Amino acid sequence: MALLLSALLFGVGVYGVLARRNAIALLMAVELMLNAANLDLVAFDAWFKDTMHAGQVFALFVVVVAAAEVGVGLAIVLAVFRLRETVAVDELRELADVDPPVRADT
Amino acid sequence: MTHLAWLLPALPALAAVVGLFVGTRVAGGPAVPAILGTGGAFVMSLLVLGAAEGSPAKVHESAVAWTPIGGQTLHVGTRVDGLVAVIAVMVCAVALLVQVYSTAYMAGDPRYSVYAAEVSLFTAAMLLVVVASNLFELLIGWELMGLCSYLLIGHYWQTEGARAAAVKAFVTTRFGDAAFLVGIIVLGVHAGSFEISRVLAAPGPRGGVFTAGVILLLGGVVGKSAQFPLHVWLPDAMAGPTPISALIHAATMVAAGIFVVARLYPLFLAAPVALTVLGIIACITMLGAALAALAEDDLKRVLAWSTVSQLAYMAAGLAVRGWTAGVYHLLTHAAFKALLFLAAGSVLRTVGTNLMSQMGGLRRSMPVTFVTAVVGAAALAGLPPFAGAFSKDGILDAAHERGGALGTAVYVVGLLTVLVTAAYVTRFVVRTFLGDYRGAADESRPRLHESPLVMTAPLVALATAAVVLGLPVLPHRWGVARWLDAPVGTTALHVAAGGVVLSTALVVVSAVSVYALWRRDPAADPLAMLARRPFANAFGVDWFYDRALVRPLHAFANAILRLDDGGLDAAVEGSGTTATGIGGALRRLQNGNIQTYASGLVIAVIALVVGLSWVMA
C-alpha cells in the first residue's frame, strides 16, 4: 500500500518536473519525488524489521539534504527573478546550442 | 697584420648589420656605414697585402676552435697567402667603388638602405670565402653569396622579370652547390680534416673517390662561375641593378668559383681528370658565350655573355696548368668588367633603356663614360697595352706550352674566341657611343648628359686599373707574380712575343672588319645577319632546360597539387564535414529547455527498465 502511494507521489513529481513552467513548482515537484523515495525507505525498513533502522536514518538524511537543496534552489530562483523578472523555465534558454556565426574564412 | 685578417669579412658584415637595422637613422644615411665598412676592409686588405708580401713564411694561419663535428673539432680562422691577399684587395676595391657609385645610381630608390646592407653582406661573404681556413667556413661564405645574389638580383621585386631571374640564379647555382657540398665532405673525410691546409697536404693513395670528390667540387665552381651547362642564370641576372652586375661579375660570386679552383689547385693537379673536364667545359663556354654576345641587343646581356666567356678563359687557364695566368686574368677581368658594367650603368641611367638599338652617338654627351668604356672594351678585347691582353695571352701561352689534345683545343678555341670577342666588343662600342642617337626624337627623348662625379670617379679609377694592371707583366719585380706563389707543377706566367702579335692581329682584323661593316650603314646593327637563331637564343640551352626540366617539374608539381587537393585534402575535409553534419543533427536536442532534457531522462529510464525486465524475463 505504502509502495503504491509512493509510486503515485513519484508519478505526480515527474509530471510536475516535466510539465510545470514555474521554477518554484518545479522545486516542489522535486520534493514530491524525494519524499516518494523517503516513503519507500521507511516502508522497506518496517517490512524487513531492520534492527539498525537504516531506512529511517537514511530518510532523515534525505530530509535534511532536501532542505538544503531547496534553500539553494530557491536562492537561484530568486536571483534569476531579479535578473530576468520571470521564473518560467522554458524562457531560460541561454545554454541552448545556437547556430554559430558564419566564419569569414569558410 | 695577417692575424687580423678576420677583420676583412667582419667589417663589411658589421656594416651590413648596422645598415640593415639603423641605416636610415645614421647621420648621412645608409651609405655611411656601407662605405665605412667596405672602406675599412679595403684598408685592411692593403695592410694584409703588404704583410703577406713582406714576411718570409708564405702562409699565415690563425684559427680558433669552433664546434666539434663527427669526432673532430672544426676550426674557424683565416688562412692568408699571397693569392688571398691579392684577391682580397681586388674584392674590396671593386666593392668600395660599387658602394660609392651606388650612392648616385640608386639615389631615390626607396629600398636603398636594404640594398646597401646587402651589398655589404655580399662583400663580407666573398671575403669569408677568400680568407677561410676551413672548407666549411668557405661553404658558409659561398652559400651566403648565393643568398645575397638572390636578394640583389631580385631587388626590383615588383617586376616579374627580376623575381624570375632571382629564383633562376638561386636554383641554378643550387644544382652546383649540392655537388660542392658532397665534394667537400668527400675530400674532408678523405683527408681526415676539413682544414684547407690538411686537405691540401693529405697523403695517401688518391684513387677514384678522391677524383670524384674533386669533380663534385667542380660542380659548385661551374654553378657559381656560370660555366656551361649551369651558365644560364648569369645573363638573366641582369634584371638586378647595374652596380650589382658589376659586383657579381667582377668581385664576388663568379670570381669565387675560379678562386676556389686556384685555392685548392693541388687537389686538381692530383686529379688530372678533373682538370680535363674543366678544360672541356671552358672551351665550350668560351666560344659559345662569345657567339651569344654577338647577337644580343641588350647592352647588359652583351656584357653578361662576355663575363661567361672570360670566366671560361680563366677556367681554361687553370685547366692547362697556367695557374698564374688564370689568376692574373681574374684580377684584370675584375678591373675592366667592373668598369664596363659601371659605364653601362651610367649609360642606362641616362638613356633609360638597355637596348643598344635605342642608343648611339653618346660619345658627345657622355665623354667620360665614353673614354673609360673604350678603355674597358680594349682591355676586354685584349688589345695591348691594356690589362686583358697580357693575362689572356698568358693563358693562351700556357695552353700552347701544355700541348696535347687539351692544350691544343684550348689554344685554338681561345684564339677563335679572341676573334669573336673583338667583334662583339667593337659592335658594343659603335652601337652605343658612335653614330647618331637612335632613341625617341620627340619630347619623350631623355636629356642626354654626363653622369655625376660620384659615378664617373669610380669609372676613372677602374680605367686606370685596367691600364696599370697590364704593366706588371713586363718588369717582373713589380709583377703580380711576386704575390702569386704558384703551386708546384704549374706553368709560370710569361707572354711570348709571337703570341701577342698573333692575337693582336686577330683583334685588329676582327675589330676593323666590324667597324667597316658598320660604316656602310651607321644606323644598323653591323652584325644583323647574326641576330637570329641560334646565336640570339644562346643555342637554345634555356629552351632545352625549359622543356627538359622546368615544364616536367611544373607538371609534376601540378599533379601532386591535384592529388593533394582531390585526395588527401578531400579526405581530411570530408571527415570534418561528416562530423559537423552528425553534430548538427544532435545539436537540435540541445535547445536550452531543461524540461526537454528531463523528458529524455525519464524516457530513457523507462526504456531501460522495460528493456531490462524483458531481457531478464
Find the biggest chain interface: A-B, 12 and 10 residues
Number of domains of chain A: 1
CATH architecture of chain A: Orthogonal Bundle
Would you tell me which CATH topology of chain A applies? Answer: Helix Hairpins
Percentage of residues assigned to helices of chain A: over 70%
Largest sheet of chain B: 2 strands, antiparallel
Distance between the termini of chain B: 105 Å
Structure overview:
The complex is a heterodimer of chains A (about 110) and B (about 625). Chain A is about 70% helix and about 0% strand. With about 110 residues, chain A is mainly α. Chain A has one domain (about 1-90): Orthogonal Bundle (Helix Hairpins). In chain A, helix 2 runs antiparallel to helix 3. Chain A is elongated and about 65 Å long. With about 625 residues, chain B is mainly alpha-helical. Chain B has a two-stranded antiparallel sheet. Chain B is globular and about 120 Å long. At the A-B interface, helix 1 of A face helix 23 of B.
Which properties best describe this structure?
heterodimer; A: 106 residues; mainly alpha; Helix Hairpins; B: 617 residues; two-stranded antiparallel ribbon; 23 helices; 71% helix
